[in-house]
Write a structure and sequence with these properties.
Layout lengths: L11 E6 L2 E11 L4 E5 L6 E4 L8 H49 L1
Antiparallel strand pairs: 1-2, 2-3, 3-4
């Protein structure tokens, strides 16, 4: 996954903006604010980006997202037995408390 650490002005990059993968044009480094200026490939205008998250291809970012999703799924699967045990223990405790309350009322 070739991440672009030092893009050239005018270079087309892939990045993530508001959770969406998009293509941008690298305009320049902004040393005054320690960031980068990115432009739109088919439109006028540019904007400041403090942290450059740039890759050569869209598939590079999709690969990172896929690996992250797999890891999150594995972690969720590992949490299931513990959650199920907590759920069953809570049901048992509630049932036992209901029986105790019913027995105390009957006595």
């Amino acid at each position: 996954m070739p991440r672009i650490n030092q893009p050239e002005p005018g270079q087309v990059i892939w990045t993530v903006v508001n959770g969406q993968i998009c293509q941008r044009v690298y305009v320049r480094a902004d040393d005054a604010y320690n960031g980068h200026v990115l432009g739109f490939p088919n439109a006028e205008g540019s904007y400041f980006e403090p942290h450059l998250y740039a890759y050569e291809r869209e598939s590079d970012i999709l690969g990172i997202q896929l690996e992250s999703a797999r890891q999150q799924a594995e972690e969720a699967v590992a949490r299931v037995p513990r959650a199920e045990l907590a759920y069953r223990n809570a049901l048992r405790d509630e049932r036992d408390a209901a029986y105790a309350a019913a027995a105390a009322q009957a006595a």
